Amino acid sequence: MKRMLVSILLIALAFAFISCSSTPSSSQQVTGPKVIGATKEAVVLEYVEDRTEFLLLPVMETGRTGHVNGDADDPAIWVHPTDPARSLIFGVDKGDGLWVWNIDGEELKAVDIWGKPGNVDVRYGLELGDGTVDIVAVNIRKVKFAEGSKAAVYAINPDWTSGDDVLTVLADGQAEGNDISLGTYGMSLYQNPEDNKIYFFENASTGPIKQFLIEDDGSGEAVKLTLVRELVYPGNTCEGMVADDQLGFIYIGEEDTAVRKYYADPAKSPEVVSSFAFAEDGYSRDREGLALYECSDGTGYLLVVDQGDASNKIASIIRVYERQGDNNFVKTVALLDRDGMPMWDQDGIDSTATPIFPLFPYGVVIGHDGANSTYPLYDWRDFAGSELDICGE
Hints:
By secondary structure, the protein is mainly beta. The protein has a single domain, classed as Neuraminidase, CATH 2.120.10. 4% of the residues lie in helices and 42% in strands. The chain has 2 helices and 27 strands. The chain has helices at 2-12, 380-384; strands spanning 33-37, 42-46, 55-56, 60-61, 72-78, 88-93, 97-102, 107-111, 115-128, 131-143, 150-156, 167-171, 186-191, 198-203, 209-216, 223-231, 238-244, 249-254, 258-263, 274-276, 287-294, 300-306, 317-322, 329-335, 350-352, 364-366, 376-379. The strands form 7 sheets. Strands 3-24-23-22-21 form a 5-stranded mixed sheet, with no helix packed on it. A 4-stranded antiparallel sheet has the order 4-27-26-25. The longest helix has 11 residues, at 2-12. The protein is globular.
């Protein structure tokens, strides 16, 4: 009856967009005519997800990014060292800067980084002055009112009380000594476990991929970036990156070809270690966001966003690989939006295995909902199902 009604309405209103689906559980197939909010336009289609049986609903989501329309792209999570309930979620809006939410998804601050952001990442324990600070960093694709690209770096205040005191600027689009590749596109942070130095990987769309050391500029109140090496990158456009600090690798998502794996330590070879996630593995289009779910014993998983192809009615999906060894493929998961609908044109993703009580006692996955300009949060236990390990269980 529902299908008949939708058919009649679609004929009568040829240019209207109609949604008639109910919200599926994590074990149901997504079927029936739907209105899917893509980042560019709504798509009316008969959609059946036949690549995976794992359809996952979020536990919650952040508020929207953007002062007007919103153009969310990439998330990161910072886990408070002593009180996980005071952890923070970061997200970039390509038009309006860096957003900060508490772990309940409530907005704390929208930060003007003085330019157009690219990607965002966090690390712990940067040496600054007489102590250390945790940082959140963003690559600025285009600074305001000037020709150039820079790194934005902020110190995270673990004793924050509001958005006013949550971050301190260490470098932004107005600073000096933080220039990076003109037209920078993707980025990731890496921390060497042997000396705790933190590095900033970034690239100008198609390369080269550069590695900068982030360090105190001598004032104890700001940082500078120093180029230490370039990776031998043979490919085309890349944006998604993630570093495995413990195992010593950086993964680069060459969008239309493969995921490239390199040594992250600047003292080691800049050549490609291995490549995987090829077209024959089922990718429909771009390899976008990358994230790691890391267990302390060196095991865990690499998550790769297969962005899908809205023009050909293919929704985004997450492809999961082993973190260790040869990065063998394990499973696929379709992240659904807050209404139980497939998501389109997903960009960034983040994950942590660190317990965040009470909602995420075994870790969390943060997705990207471009249609709603939000970042949905998924319980790792739901994401793992019976096929993946759960750290600490």
